[in-house]
Amino acid sequence: MTTAANEARIILNGLSASVGAWSDAGTMEARSPIDGSVAGRLVEVGPEAVEAAVAASVSAFQAWRRVPAPRRGELVRLLGEELRAAKGDLARLVTLEAGKIVSEGLGEVQEMIDICDFAVGLSRQLNGLTLPSERPGHHMRETWQPLGPVAIVTAFNFPVAVWAWNAALALVCGNPVIWKPSEKTPMTALGVQAVFDRAVARFGSDAPEGLAQLLIGRREVGEALAADPRIPLVSATGSTRMGRAVATTVAGRLARSLLELGGNNAMIVTPSADLDMAVRAIAFSAVGTAGQRCTTLRRLLVHEGVADALIARLKAAYETLPIGDPRAEGVLVGPLIDEAAGAAFDRALERAVEQGGTVVTGGGRVEAGGGVYVRPAIVRMPAQSEVVMTETFAPILYVLTWSDFDAAVAMQNDVPQGLSSCVFTDSVREAEAFLSAWGSDCGIANVNIGPSGAEIGGAFGGEKETGGGRESGSDSWKSYMRRQTQTVNFSRELPLAQGVRFEV
Ligand code: UN1
Fold first, then answer.
1. Parallel, antiparallel, or unpaired for β 396-402 and 417-418?
2. N or C end of the chain: which has fewer CB within 10 A?
3. Catalytic residue selected from 82, 260, 430, 471
4. Is the CB of 285 under 6 A from ligand 1?
């Protein structure tokens, strides 16, 4: 029987990806969390490979920045077409290597396609301002210039979309990219690179060598990229600990980082909330991707008058959740990424009980063919104790109650992470208060929709401990460019500054 990992390897072969990447001497196992199978070993690079990769990127930059932005957009348009053609294969790779259910794998590739469309339009709208000069016969304007090589470090849980958010924007902005994917998802990265190469082949020779590079490697490769003075922007997604290390290194050389780190997202449910909608939103955002999204719902803050009714309905919904092989039709909860994630799930539940929590449902493993499958848990907590304030990358939903709306908002804000948030209410007062300056302190605030599943059109990311990075839509492109204020004197005078005379 073909193992899940071998199925991924067959798809890669079909995409003509990873030719030469496999070797018995390779040191990176390509595995699937579905059944724990291993497809083989991939050759990985060490930090010493970063030198040559950055040199190639710098020379690619010299050419790419001269290509007009709308023409750069054409490459991203072709990438979008190739992604559409390869959508099924890439989505399947995401399922096989990250363990996402089929519709989530497809959804992730759709995010790649969407950001390509967005970036194509953007390639004709990298607009600056013209500014009134205080000096006669002068023209002032603001121009957005390409920045240089962009390093992209991505996590296992969104193994393809996050690269695309960064790469599509970086490319239209005139920057080459160097990608270090998670060591847990090298195969999807190889698949994406193959699709990119197809787009380049159709585009033509004005796409320089080394425009988008892939470095299969470990933490040290990311560290070397973060430390390299030729990389003006490092965009990294992952744990808060990793983000702090990247931010410190990058700030130490006064360059820019764009970070997407932890989330500890809450939903406030008020007495007027539509509970049918709330139950569906909670189930999707708390157990989707087996609780391994940074936007996963982790804290449910319910008004004490509706708590028992809501919890009873959630318990019933949780107890019929189909858990198992994410390829199987109807399954909603796939595996955790690895044994360490399973252990973190178990430990968090133990800590929750120690801290006064009562498990309403879930916990423990489901035997399903070799992967780490857990039963999503709901735990009622007496207070926002240490474990509630911590992001555990697994499907645990902590439930707390409140009686005063302002106190609920304060509770939602009282964690270090500030990525996504939402309120379920039919009261316009509560909804608007939640969205006001004294409401949610998160980067994303929603009304009557859960905290996950953000569209690419908005700036994605958080405030507070998430690193404050904003990626993908809105004006996030400005992070990938340098702003230049330009002044042209078309007079025959030299007014140096207001009121200053300087004769030589
Ligand atoms: C992440 O979990 O790292 O909003 C990103 C969402 C997705 C992106 C999540 N569009 O759930």
1. unpaired
2. C
3. 260
4. no
Q: How many structural domains are present in the chain?
A: 2
Is the shortest distance between the CB of 396 and ligand 1 below 6 Å? Answer: no
> Is the beta carbon of 295 within 6 A of some atom in ligand 1?
yes
Assess whether 327 and 234 both reside in one domain.
Answer: no
Does 8 reside within a domain? no
Distance between start and end Cα atoms, the chain: 87
Q: Where are the beta strands (DSSP E) in 35-160?
A: 38-42, 130-131, 138-146, 150-153
Tell me if residue 260 is catalytic: yes
Clarify whether residues 312 and 209 are in a common domain.
no
Burial class (CB in 10 A: 0-12, 13-18, 19+), 63: middle
Do residues 303 and 423 share a domain? yes
CA of 286 to the centre of ligand 1 (A): 13
Residues with Cβ within 8 Å of residue 492, at least 6 apart in sequence: 137
**Which residues make Cβ contacts (< 8 Å) with residue 11, sequence separation at least 6?**
89, 92, 93, 96, 191
- Do the domain assignments include residue 38? no
Q: Encode 186-198: b = buried (16+ Cβ within 10 Å), e = exposed.
A: bbbbbbbbbbbeb
Report which DSSP code applies to 336. B
Are residues 120 and 172 both part of a single domain? yes
Q: 201 and 209 in contact (C-beta within 8 Å)?
A: no
Average pLDDT of adjacent 10-residue blocks, the chain of 504 residues: 93 86 92 96 95 98 98 98 98 98 98 98 97 94 98 97 98 98 97 97 96 96 97 93 91 93 94 97 97 97 97 97 97 97 98 98 94 98 97 97 98 94 98 97 96 93 76 94 96 79 74
User: Is 175 within 8 Å of 72 (Cβ atoms)?
Assistant: no
Residues 6+ apart with CB under 8 A from 296: 263, 265, 285, 286, 288, 289, 393, 395, 451, 452
Q: How many whole angstroms separate alpha carbon 64 and alpha carbon 148?
A: 10
Residue 16 within any structural domain of the chain:
no
CA gap 237, 52 in Å, rounded? 24
Residue-number span of the structural domain to which 163 is assigned: 49-261+468-485
Tell me how far the alpha carbon of residue 453 lies from the centroid of ligand 1, in angstroms: 6
Q: Which residue has the tokens 């603001």?
A: 142
160 and 192 in a single domain? The answer is yes
Q: Determine which residue's CA is closest to atom 7 belonging to ligand 1.
A: 453
